[in-house]
Fold this protein.
Amino acid sequence: MTTYLIEFSYLAASILFILGLKGLSHPETARRGMHLAELGMLMAVIGTLMHHEIVSYEWIIAGLLIGSTIGAMMAIWVPMTAMPQRTALSHAFGAFAAALVGIAEYYRHGSELGQFKMSAIGLEVMLGALTTTGSLLAFAKLQGLVRGTPMTYRGQNVFNMTLLAATVGCFVYLIFVPTAAPFFYVMMGLAFLFGIMLVMPIGAADMPVVMSLLNSYAGLAAAATGFALSNNVLIIAGTLDGFSGFILSVLMCRAMNRSMTNVLFGAFGSASPEAEALDGQQGTMREVGLEDVAVQLAYANQVVFVPGYGMATAQAQHIVRELAAILEKKGVSVKYAIHPVAGRMPGHMNVLLAEANVPYSSLYELEQINPEFSSTDVAIVIGANDVVNPDARDNPKSPIAGMPILEVDRARSVVVLKRGKGKGFAGIENPLFFKPVTGMLYGDAKDSLTKLVQAVQHV
Ligand code: NAP
């Protein structure tokens, strides 16, 4: 009977995970998808707790209490803008757990393992170990604990490839000779080292892509754990996690017009000599006054808001919505342009604007809004930089050449809200700020928008 209950809860959990992922594919259903996945996780935990091999619950309950407390504190206090590094930490913990299970299984049954179980345990420890150290380094880079720029040295790719080959070599040898314990521990050590070496040359700008790739490895490590422990829900959930993470990495690369190899081995973010030479040679920026912008907005037919990372740090989404409502009352058509990699995680802008109750029908994706800029009176860029950089379109030598951008420079007037001359995530200059059509409104985005709301009401 208990076995049936366990299998039923695992089946229900797997179905809920799949429905959850489906829900996450659209902003309107994302919240429901998240709740379904949470319910799925609860079912999986309950099913596991019913397992007859559990001899005592004290340690499990202690672990549940400590883990849930830490998780709840992180969910409550970590700001949205720090979500990538929070996710990196979660991956590190998840992958470390998978690696530890694999190490324990090998320690207990090493001499009796068949080829299939050895392959599963080897894969679990290898992927788990490299994901642990890789994710910890990604966390440190994103949090600014270590330098975010790529750390490179001569022969780095050759060294990394040799290290990977040695790790995989140990793994393959173990499949044929599972009793060769020294090879197991060498493989584990090399995999931990490889995780660091893999992430070292990757700049902070590419870290979100790397994060979702590490997420994919952690998922595959969990799936391998499922094979090692003969646990169906781990196999299904791990595979879903592994492949959705991989697809997400590919989609992010596509949105930045970069190849996966370029992200992993391109040391992107260390400015090229050409890009550095261009810096500071763009002319002067034209500053605009608040009253001037308010008049432009109040008399416009169409205004497009272009949010970016700065809107997230300023938490300006609510005041954007307020300004939009005032403009709409004055008969202005208001739209929001959403770039797929604006902010610091996929869907970042959608989440923030949904939180401020901006209707989904006002959100326009890149392909939908770009043809509209030429008939837009004012494009208001709110803390966005790289995603509106015309160099990606016009300058083949730019490090972000080919990345699809929101073509705000085609609007009749562009107003950029930012605090100063800070660069975007890619660390390069933006010619948009020097174009005659562009006016700079300096200050924190939330402060500027609050003042704009008052000014527009008096026009
Ligand atoms: P961005 O290029 O990082 O630029 C953000 C701008 O916001 C900065 O220039 C900064 O200038 C301004 N800013 C910061 N705080 C502000 C505040 N409180 N008020 C007003 N302005 C503020 O942002 P983005 O245009 O959204 O581009 C996202 C970048 O992340 C892209 O390079 C993208 O490739 C990368 N990325 C994103 C993802 C993803 O999943 N979303 C994944 C991978 C990579 P000041 O300092 O002068 O204010």
Observations:
- The beta strands are 302-307, 333-338, 363-365, 378-382, 413-418, 438-442.
- Residues 205, 208-209, 252, 256, 308-310, 313-314, 341-346, 348, 383-387, 417-426, 444-445 surround NAP (CB under 6 Å).
